[in-house]
Amino acid sequence: MSASIALQKDVSIAYLGPPGTFSHQAVYQRFGDSVVYVPQKQITDVFEAVEKGRATYGIVPYENSTFGSVVETLDYLIKANVKVRSETYLTVHQCLLSNSPLDKINKVYSHPQGLGQTQEWLSAHLPEARRISVKSTAQAAEQASQEIGAAAICSEICSELYGLDIVARDIEHGVANTTRFLIIGTSSDAPTGNDHTLLRFTVDHRQPGALCDGLKIFKDHGLNLFKIDSRPSGLRPWHYVFFLECSGHANSEKVQLAVKDLNQYCLDVAILGSFPNERTDGDC
What we know:
There is one protein chain. The chain is an alpha/beta fold. It has helices spanning 2-6, 22-31, 43-51, 71-77, 112-117, 119-125, 137-144, 157-162, 210-220, 253-262; strands spanning 12-16, 36-40, 57-64, 68-69, 83-91, 95-98, 107-110, 130-133, 150-154, 165-168, 178-185, 195-203, 225-232, 240-247, 266-276. It is 28% helix and 33% strand.
């Protein structure tokens, strides 16, 4: 996708801002100075910027290797009118930033993912500090810079951007803490021969084995499954929307036949996009 963007003019990409977030780092790592970056206040705004034509593409965090799926992204994908067209990965190192010493910190701001990725360190070193969720890690840094006794969990680059001291580095739990991002647009790219497809569907919860029957279709068509998520639909209690990522491109015969068969067991089946597989063999 980076190569195709280089051929386009006036390309803008919406991301979860303000500057200094991991979304900002991920998109800059992928596209460099070839595009215009448009910061958004929250993840839902990134989707809306693409849907309403205020940005050519958007980048949203999808899952973290330590703390799992990003629920804000999944929740908007329930109703999103966009297509996934690419993915990218960023190794994430969390820092504790503050203008107060460690023993004077009584509150910690971060995005829920930041708090989740560092919960072991926080329990060991700041067990009494309040943990306060905000819309982004950079917003956390901005907030902490204005308060005595406040700290932020965010990237090291926020230290320079928001005038904070680095109290502790690499406080995330787990080796090679990595966040996966999806790049969204109004359409997906053509097949590459090594692609993944993201699907969304619901099932009739009163029908025994409906989900099992639906999943078996992918095995029958020789398609591998890489990720399955569920989120409340919001329509009624205990009704869920499922997200499934499989091998293959939506334009391939295998995926098209699988989707056709899936409609026999599942409801509201939708293809959310196909994209080149960026995982290494060791990640699969």
